[in-house]
Amino acid sequence: MAAESNSDELISSTKPDAAPESETKVLSEPSAIPNGGVTAWLQVLGAHLLFFNSWGIINTFGAYQTYYESELLRHNSSSEISWIGTFQGFLLTVFCIATGPIFDRGYYQPMLAVGTFLVVFGLMMTSIATEYWQVFLAQGLCTGLGTSCLFLPSVAIVATYFSTKRALATGIVAAGGSIGSVVYPIVFHRLQPQIGFGWATRVIGFLALFGIAISTVIMKTRLPPVKKSHSLIDTAAFRSPLFVLFSFGVFFVFVGLYIPFFYIIDFAQHKLGVTEDLSFYLLCVINASSAFGRIIPGLLADRLGSLEVITICTLATTVLAYAWIAINNLGGIIVFCILYGFFSGAVVSLPPTVVASLAPELELVGTWVGMCFGFAGLGFLIGNPIAGTLISIEDRQFTHGIIFAASMVAAAAVFFVSVELIRLGFIRVRSSK
């Protein structure tokens, strides 16, 4: 099923009789959207690098968490340390509420400049930090704000260049986050013992600067800036039952989805007795598999529909998360990392595509995506610290945290299924006026 047909169905499913013209307006005429060409695919490359240096840096925190627990911040609890990483992810997603309207007004180049400075400056300050509050301000606050300025342009620009191939293009873009999540932890893991924590972190900062610079040069918007200012919140979105239900689903999925990414190393070391070096590479396995999960389901989403594919993948992720409880050997955890990374990758990459199909016009995509990821940010903020209080590494007790993660993803699946049932007409709702 093509993405533009999804848009018509999703919008029309909320109309009981007749609806205002603004609610029935499709995103754009398909002929006006390139759906390919050198310029369009250059945007995909540039956005891929932005994901590499935003989500890639965020997902690297699993390697930092292990180092902090044993070295720099060993006197702080796992839950306290995890707040640094979750605050990064919270700012990346929830700050999209502000960056969305800024992007819609055409200020994406200043956003990239500010994001570049904050990410690099935050990493450099992290490299000289010695106390918890210093790491929190540098890595959690400064770097988190920087990645938020890079993230939204990466998905919003690409969404305007594609309609029939939008899910595939978005999947390739999102794969940058997974590849960055493989490269940066390996860089840190290999360099930290040789040149120390400080210089290993600085190397990551220089690599990020180089990648973002390429994106800044090649990326450009296709649509002119909107003529009227949008508020940070488009209240019309809350009159769409599909958008509201889908956003609640995104909230719950981000509460539980990233818990394995933060704690898979600790689980392998303390629960299964895997060596420190081998357990580290499990994080690389789950992130590498996630890259394929962001591209291959994108191909299916362009044919079957993004909502359908994300619903199926969320259900599969739920089953895998519950199955994590029963894993008791190295072979089992490797298979888990491969499968969980694949299906969770699709869950992360497809929300912008679904939201783009729900927005009544392309000019509002940035704002609507920002609002949806505001829900995601709140979920990301609370998920891992809660899991940290439920997990006892000293007692090798992970079950309660795993059940919590799986149950949150299961709740998200319920919301996604509800959206699908409404879209198909099995549940009929009336949009608020």
Describe this protein with a few key phrases:
single chain, 433 residues, mainly alpha, Growth Hormone, Chain: A, 18 helices
| Strand residues, percent | under 5%
Q: In angstroms, what separates the terminal alpha carbons? A: 30 Å
SSE order, one letter for each helix or strand:
HHHHHHHHHHHHHHHHHH
Stretches with pLDDT under 50, minimum 5 residues: 1-31
The largest sheet is:
none
CATH homologous superfamily descriptor: MFS general substrate transporter like domains
What is the overall number of helices? 18
Helix content: over 70%
In CATH terms, what is the fold-level topology? Answer: Growth Hormone, Chain: A
User: What CATH architecture would you give?
Assistant: Up-down Bundle
On the 0 to 100 scale, the average pLDDT is: 84
Indicate the radius of gyration in whole angstroms.
21 Å
Number of domains: 1
Shape annotation? globular
Structure class: mainly alpha
